[in-house]
């Protein structure tokens, strides 16, 4: 869901300050939101872990179904007609929606009767308390104590209708539309017919996400799930209202949601409410000069039981990142990079310690699937396209006419990758609306002598950070090409280094094996969510090389026509010759060709622009790694993890201020990524023997030579 998503065809803004005049022709072609007859099906479940769920075909492309504006309610949504109905149609619609109530007593019964709750109580109680608990059920209730407040949550039908009516009015004021994909809603209706409880997992992008999702489900006659809100309210009346709307509040005495999860009783109690949702419900006002639109996406439901029983997605057996890359970084050996990376840090042992190793690994696998599904289900908005082009291709400014041409090109590339987009209409209206939403973060000027507008990103930290956040979705779309471009750039840099320096030489031959190894090294540095969970890193690296050919950056090296193929390949040493021991075996040739291939840049004179654009998509992350490594000696030793995060963040912001550029590299999310990478690489060593987790610089990387090798390893993937 994107809080600044837009649909220009339904957007009717006031006369904006931006004016294109007659400099841009109004008869430019329309922008198609998809290729062919149907929109791409996004958010499908994993074909390897849940093939039966995928075979149910819950998510289908139905031509009559399109998009619905949730806030546009009229008399056709009710069973009545007339002048008075048109005045109160929203109220009639809300009162006509189906509500699935859930009494509080039903939840208490499920919690108290849960076997997991009983076992957790036995572990937490003394032997005498356990004996009494087994004999008398009221004693069990009293022992739950502060966690008993969770069971007071229920859904009141009349209050849910009233709040839904208020939310419809509220969202119609702050958004021009709330778009919902009716194909995805139809898939949810099919999933409910299977009679299994649904658990919704939301990737939070704004403070009103949970309210929007619950309202969407209510308006489509789907059961509104219980939602979790990780905060405390001192107002008794507000807690009472939220609990009657199905909002689960943290029990008194828990400092945060993480503290609550550390409680041995928290997990059993929460998992014994059958329709628990991982949504966190919060309502906050949005302020802005321009009203945008919202697109809400629902991925295809899948069977958690099928995923657990199939056992096809395994995350055990992974090796630490330092075991995979340190030999390549320090000793230039590639024999260890082909293994899988360990991701057990996603669920630390301190969280839910009662889980068995098998359950813990399965939970991590589920987390990886949800992270990847959330990134591939979201549509690309025009604000993302404009932000990406301004940051990574036209950072110094661009004419609006050229920006329109580049948006058409980038849009086609996005659609070719089976990714959904959330807009359509005329090209001028599309660009104008995107620039209107991004206007606070842009600089506008007139180019003499024609006066055509020139757009450039505003060179201040807040503006560049906002634009960079809009670019993240496109980085996921082009992740194969971005990794491949960085690998090509690294190999070209090696050619320059072997030649004694100078400019990059683009007319060179690149070997498939070396290109795959470079791609694999960079793949190990990616955060979870970029790579499909059921795909190996090596398989992803092979796909990277293929994607570079498909997008036209690389072409296979052609063999001279006047030379026999076998003779040419034999002289190059890429064929192995074999003589068959079976004379009866028929064979067209005695030469066997391995998979090794060679590639060249397709158009060396024109390719650098596209190559550098793709490299720039990952340069923000790589630059953050370089800057943090260079400032590592400023950190005191030892230092707590929280203080280390804070000081690294301060160092990156200071570095951006000194360079007066690349402020987007200093975001707190990138600092978290850097800290996690340094811990996995062994640059920082964790000391968990104390009450807090302390970090210390590894003696290995205290040496300047090893630190410089790691720095050059990061820098090789950045274009220069």
Automatic annotation (TrEMBL):
GO terms for cellular component: mitochondrial membrane. GO terms for molecular function: glycerol-3-phosphate O-acyltransferase activity. Residues 282-686 form the GPAT/DHAPAT C-terminal domain. It comes from the Eukaryota. Pfam families: GPAT_C. Residues 579-598 are annotated as: Disordered. Keywords: Acyltransferase, Transferase. One of its GO terms (biological process) is fatty acid metabolic process. This is Glycerol-3-phosphate acyltransferase 2, mitochondrial isoform X3.
């Amino acid at each position: 869901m994107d809080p600044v998503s837009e649909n220009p065809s339904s957007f009717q803004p006031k006369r904006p300050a931006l004016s294109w005049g007659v400099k841009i022709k109004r008869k430019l072609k329309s922008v198609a939101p998809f290729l062919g007859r149907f929109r791409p099906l996004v958010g499908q479940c994993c074909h390897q872990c849940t093939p039966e769920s995928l075979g149910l075909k819950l998510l289908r492309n139905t031509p009559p179904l399109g998009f619905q504006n949730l806030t546009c309610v009229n008399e056709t949504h009710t069973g009545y007609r007339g002048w008075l109905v048109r005045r109160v149609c929203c109220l009639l619609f809300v009162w006509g929606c189906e509500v699935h109530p859930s009494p509080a007593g039903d939840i208490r019964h499920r919690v108290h009767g849960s076997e997991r709750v009983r076992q957790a109580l036995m572990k937490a109680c003394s032997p005498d308390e356990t004996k009494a608990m087994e004999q008398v059920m009221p004693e069990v209730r009293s022992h739950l104590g502060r966690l008993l407040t969770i069971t007071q949550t229920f859904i009141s039908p009349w209050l849910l209708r009233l709040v839904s009516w208020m939310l419809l009015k509220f969202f119609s004021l702050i958004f021009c539309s709330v778009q919902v994909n009716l194909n995805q809603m139809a898939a949810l209706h099919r999933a409910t017919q299977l009679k299994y409880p649904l658990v919704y997992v939301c990737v939070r992008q704004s403070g009103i996400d949970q309210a929007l999702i619950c309202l969407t489900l209510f308006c489509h006659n789907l059961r509104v799930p219980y939602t979790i809100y990780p905060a405390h309210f001192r107002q008794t009346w507000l807690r009472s209202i939220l609990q009657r709307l199905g909002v689960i509040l943290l029990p008194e005495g828990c400092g945060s949601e993480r503290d609550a999860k550390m409680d041995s009783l928290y997990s059993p109690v929460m998992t014994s409410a059958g329709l628990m949702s991982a949504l966190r419900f919060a309502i906050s006002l949005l302020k802005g000069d321009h009203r945008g639109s919202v697109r809400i996406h629902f991925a295809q439901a899948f069977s958690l039981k099928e995923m657990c029983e199939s056992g096809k997605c395994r995350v055990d057996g992974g090796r630490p990142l330092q075991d995979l890359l340190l030999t390549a970084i320090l000793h230039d050996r590639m024999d260890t990079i082909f293994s899988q990376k360990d991701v057990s840090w996603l669920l630390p042992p301190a969280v839910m310690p009662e889980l068995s190793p098998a359950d813990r690994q399965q939970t991590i696998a589920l987390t990886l699937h949800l992270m990847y599904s959330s990134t591939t289900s979201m549509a690309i908005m025009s604000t993302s396209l404009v932000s990406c082009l301004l940051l990574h291709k036209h950072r110094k400014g661009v004419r609006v006419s050229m920006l329109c041409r580049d948006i058409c090109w980038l849009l086609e590339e996005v659609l070719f990758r089976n990714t959904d987009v959330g807009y359509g209409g005329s090209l001028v209206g599309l660009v104008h609306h995107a620039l209107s939403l991004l206007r606070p973060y842009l600089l506008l000027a007139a180019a003499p002598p024609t006066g055509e507008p020139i757009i450039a990103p505003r060179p201040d930290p807040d503006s560049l950070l906002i634009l960079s956040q809009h670019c993240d979705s496109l980085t996921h779309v082009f992740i194969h090409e971005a990794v491949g471009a960085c690998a090509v750039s690294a190999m070209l840099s090696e050619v320059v280094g072997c030649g004694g320096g100078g400019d990059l030489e683009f007319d060179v031959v690149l070997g498939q094996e070396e290109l795959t190894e470079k791609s694999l090294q960079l793949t190990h540095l990616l955060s979870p969510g970029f790579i499909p969970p059921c795909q190996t890193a090596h398989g992803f690296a092979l796909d990277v090389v293929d994607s570079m050919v498909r997008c036209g950056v690389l072409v296979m090296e052609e063999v001279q026509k006047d030379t026999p193929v076998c003779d040419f390949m034999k002289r190059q040493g890429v064929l192995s010759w074999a003589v068959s021991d079976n004379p009866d075996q028929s064979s067209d040739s005695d030469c066997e060709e391995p998979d090794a291939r060679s590639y060249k840049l397709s158009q060396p004179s024109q390719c650098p622009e596209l190559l550098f654009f793709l490299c720039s998509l990952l340069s923000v992350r790589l630059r953050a790694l370089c800057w943090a490594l260079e400032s590592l000696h400023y950190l005191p030793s030892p230092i707590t993890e929280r203080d280390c995060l804070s000081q690294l963040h301060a160092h990156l912001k200071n570095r951006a201020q000194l360079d007066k550029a690349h402020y987007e590299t200093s975001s707190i999310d990138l600092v978290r990524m850097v800290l996690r990478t340094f811990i996995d690489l062994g640059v920082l060593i964790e000391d968990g023997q104390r009450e807090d987790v302390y970090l210390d610089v590894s003696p290995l990387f205290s040496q300047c030579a090893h630190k410089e090798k790691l720095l050059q390893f990061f820098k090789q993937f950045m274009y220069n």
